[in-house]
Amino acid sequence: MTAVLITVIAVLVFSLIGVLVRQVALVRRRPVRLPGEASRRILFPFAASALSRRALDAALRLAHAEDAVLVPVFLARVPLYLPLDAPLPRQAGVAIPLQEAIEHRAVAFGVPVDARIERGRTYRHALRQTIDHEQFDRIVLAAGSQDGHGFGPDDVAWLLENAPGEIVVLRPGAQDNLIPQSRRRRQDRSRTPPVLA
Q1: How far apart, in whole angstroms, are the C-alpha atoms of residue 191 and residue 156?
Q2: CA 6 from chain center: how many Å?
Q3: What is the domain extent for residue 26?
Q4: Is 190 within 8 Å of 146 (Cβ atoms)?
Q5: Bridge-partner residues for 44, per DSSP?
Q6: DSSP string across 177-192
Q7: Within this chain, do residues 11 and 69 fall inside the same structural domain, yes or no?
Q8: How many domains does the chain fold into?
Q9: Are strands 41-46 and 69-77 parallel, antiparallel or unpaired?
Q10: 104-145: per-residue pLDDT in tens?
Q11: Are 67 and 106 within one domain?
C-alpha cells in the first residue's frame, strides 16, 4: 500500500511540474512590455459616444502583432465659456470607465496601454492637440456609424491631410459601441448625437 501511495504522489508531483514548466514557457514566449519599453505606439482616439468595439479590437490586434503600446485617447470637449484647463467632472466620469474597459480588453490581448485624456473646444481640436503632443506610428479610429456617432467623413479627410503616420479607419456596426448602459439610456433620451467639428 505504501509503494502505491508513493507512486501516486510521484506521478502527481511530476504532472504538476510539467504544467508549471509549460506555463512558464508560454509566459516567456511573449512577454508583456511596460508602456515605456515598446518602440511602436498606436493611437486610438475616441469620443464618449463613439467607442467602437470593432475598431478597438482591430487596434489591439495590431498592437499585439507589432509589440506596440495602445494609446487610447479620450477626446473631451470643453465649452467656450470655460477655460481650456477647467475641471470636467462629468466627462471624467465617462472617460475613466471607458478607459478601464479598454484596459480590461487589452489584458486579453496581452497589450500594454497608456491611456490619455485630451481637451479641445471641438473633437477635431482635441485630436489636433493629441497629434501635436503624442508620439505614434499609426492611428486607428472608428468612422461614423449609422446612428451618427464616430468620426464623420470631414474629420477623416482632415485627419488624412494633417496627421503623420498610417491611418486605419473602420466603420462600426449599428450595435458596436462599448457605451456603459446608464450612459446609453441617457443618450437615447437626449437624442443629440455629438458633432465632430
Answers
A1: 24
A2: 52
A3: 1-30
A4: no
A5: 72
A6: B---HHHHHHHHHH--
A7: no
A8: 2
A9: parallel
A10: 999 989 999 999 999 999 888 999 999 998 889 999 988 876
A11: yes
